[in-house]
Amino acid sequence: MSDSAHSEPLIDRIYEAGLIPSLWPAVLGELSAAIGGNGGFLFGVARWLHERGQFCRI
Q1: Is the pTM of this model over 0.70?
Q2: What is the DSSP string of the chain?
Q3: Which domain holds residue 14?
Q4: What is the pLDDT of residues 21-31, one digit of tens each?
């Protein structure tokens, strides 16, 4: 099998985890194993807007 054939299911799982956040721990483990790593870390940054005296997430 080619490398792309091995990576396509993992890419699909990454997109799936984008919609179902609870899948990220398993997907990061799969990604780590695929590249020979020891683990993975994912963080997000929320943007906030101060509008009319209130903070709104954007």
Answers
A1: no
A2: --HHHHHHHHHHHHHHHHH-GGGHHHHHHHHHHHHT-S---------EEEETTEEEE-
A3: 3-57
A4: 999 999 999 99
